[in-house]
Specification:
mainly alpha
């Protein structure tokens, strides 16, 4: 895959790998970090937080979503913090 959508695809693939518990999740997340876009940054912050079990990173991701006006994504991200 090439072109302007590649960073979005990499970020989405990284988050899906984390959610699925795939062994490739750390590598996919690291490979997607070059993305320079607010949406990608929010996705990757959330994925990295989930991968590391880092609640503060998940909170930062929720703030990124709020800054973008993405209320559903913000709420879904905050939901990940509930036991």
């Amino acid at each position: 895959m090439q072109g302007r959508y590649l960073p979005f695809a990499r970020a989405a693939a990284a988050e899906l790998a984390v959610a699925a518990g795939l062994p490739s999740a750390p590598q996919r997340t690291a490979a997607a970090q070059d993305a320079d876009d607010p949406w990608n940054a929010a996705v990757l912050e959330r994925a990295s937080g989930r991968l590391a079990g880092d609640a503060e990173a998940v909170r930062r991701a929720a703030r990124r979503w709020a800054d973008l006006g993405a209320r559903f994504e913000e709420a879904a991200t905050l939901r990940l913090l509930r036991p």
